[in-house]
Each structure stands twice: as C-alpha cells, then as structure tokens.
Amino acid sequence: MPKVLRELRPVYVVGAGWHRYQNPSETPYVTLGLTAIREALADANIAWPTVESAYVATALLGMASGRPMLRHLGATGIPLAHIENASASGSTAFRHACIEVASGISDVAVAIGVDKRNPVRRDNTGISDLADDAIAPFTHFALLTNEYAHRHNVNLDDIARVAVKNHSNGAKNKNAQRQQERSLEEVLSGRKVSGSLTVLQCTPIGEGGAAVIVASEEGIRRHGIDMARAIRVTASVGRSEGVYPAGAGFDAALTTETVGMALAEAQITPKDIDVIELHDAFTIEELQYLESIGVCPEGQAVQLLKEGAWDIGGRCAVNPSGGLIAMGHPIGPTGIGQIGELALQLRGEAGARQQPNARAGLAHMVGVGAVCYAHVLQRP
What we know:
This protein is an alpha/beta fold and 380 residues long. The chain has two domains: 141 residues, 3-Layer(aba) Sandwich (Peroxisomal Thiolase, Chain A, domain 1), CATH 3.40.47; 201 residues, Peroxisomal Thiolase, Chain A, domain 1. 34% of the residues lie in helices and 19% in strands. It has 13 helices and twelve strands. The strands form two sheets. It has a ten-stranded mixed sheet with strand order 3-2-4-7-1-8-12-11-9-10, with helices on both faces. A two-stranded antiparallel ribbon has the order 5-6. The protein is globular and about 55 Å long.
C-alpha cells in the first residue's frame, strides 16, 4: 500500500497571502503573483532565501510563467515546477509542496497560484465531441439543478440561497472578487445564464494570486517560525475519475471517493469538520458536494441551508471565504486560496468570517470532473 501523508513527517501551513481576486485588468500577472508571495512570506515572518522549493500553479499563462515572476524575489537557484490541472491546479501544487516537505527533501516550500484570463484555447485531440456545441458547462449545471430539484422536491429559488450565503461571506473578505451582499430577490432577478441559473449563481471570470508556505517541524524551529500559528496538514488526497454506475454524477462520485480517503487519512469523520471550502462554480455544486462529502444525507442540504447550518456560526461554515461564487475562481490560485482561508480560520484570524472554535477544515476542488483533490487541515 502507498504511504499517506500522515505516515511521513508532519507538514504545517505557516504562511498565506493573496492578491485580491478581481475583474480582468491590465495588472501584469507578475504583480498578482508577487503580491501573494510577499504577503505569505510576511505572514510566516521569513525571507525568500528561506524557501527551498517552489510549485507554481497556472492554467492559462503558458510555458514557464514562474521564471519572470520569481526572479524579482532573488535568484536563489531553488527547484521550480509548474503545474496545470484545470480548476484543481492550485490544489495539485499544494499537494506536491506538502509531499516534498513530508518526505524530507525540503523543510520549507511554497505553492503559488496565479492566472489571468486569455482567449480560450481548444486543443485538437483528434476526437470530436458531438455535444460540445450543444451543452456548455453552465447548461450542464442548469440541467443538474433542475434534476436535483425534481428528485428531491426542492424549490429552485431555495437552491439560489447558496449564492445569497456566499455573497454575504464574500462581502466580509477583502480578497474576494465580489464584495457585495445580495438578497434572494437580487440573485433571482439577475441576468439569466442558462435555465434557472442567473449570473449571481455562477462564479465570475477574473484574475488574482494566492500563495501558501508549508514547513516541517525542523524548518519551523530553524527559522524561528511561530509554532502557535502553524496549522497541520493531516491529509492530502488526489484522484482521477473511474468508471461509475449508470446515472451516477461522475464529479459527485469522485468527490465521495476522494474526500472519504482524506477523512480516513486524517482519522476524522464528516461530523468533525468545522469549516469547508469547496468547489461551488455553480450553486448546485455546493449542495451536491456537501451531500457527497457526507456532512448531511442526500437531499437534505437545501433544508439545512435554509436553517443556517452552513452559515458562519452554524453547524459547519461552508465557503466562508465567499466560495468560487463570490471569492472568485481565477483557476490557478483557487485551490491555494482555499488552503489559506482554512489556515486563517483554524488560527482564529478570519475576522468577521471567523467560524467559532474551528479545529478541523476541509478543502475540496474538482478539475473538469476528471480529477478531485481533498486536503484536511487541523489545529494542533
């Protein structure tokens, strides 16, 4: 059996930083990334030469984009790897940084996510998909929304309450792309994207940067990092899709499998999770994944949403950052930003977004349905 993270050296998140996620602009991506890295270094109270390895997550920037960014911090000669894994690019970079520290190869590593939107590139695989022009991603999720509502006898308006919650959370987050509270009426009356989905129920297009620094106990001691603010990574799992029963949602099934492995690795249950940052590019995804994770039975996520169970201060704070719907989804930074939010929550440093007495957090990302990554962070 392959080793799991918990069987290797303990790994801790010791620094986190962002460049605010924002609408497309003329800001160079180098500025977006450097802002996040420098904030993470300051948060850990270390200098750049302390970092022994770097993983740069991007989905849109092209070849070797980390080189012109990191050179402004100093040419220290550290290993540099670029990672692209669709929406899970940042989550993948974070996992590899953790593996490197856990294995003892490095004592301090950084995972950086940065992206700017470029024209969509369609790679020619030589195999056409007959549905490409008929079913765009937002149409797929609009159909999922209708199917979920019908199957569980749920009002479509109530599904939109996910967006109300997440816009409220984003309004409390200085790094969020959308920082305005929205009423249910505002969410429902917005421009229609597909079916019942309005623009405020979908993640916005944007850009930004996020960085987290991970360290071993030896690295923490050697560099005088404050152990009281270090948050342990107790599980890291990455999976790709398998073959599932007919009618099963592949991304939901993959989520169940991946998160189940992560919780087992961390030796906790869904009931032990205090904070969840999950992939909610569309409102229905938050409900679907909450049920797949096992924090509530199938078909009950909407009722619990209405009761406030997923609010900050509720049973489990879900997407207190604002999630992809309000925090934004610049792709490369997204999964890394989730880790940073969990670190703030578990330190008790999330301010107006703070979930009381948070001790365990889960980060979840899927990448075009083909991959899923899950991480568990816990306060020592």
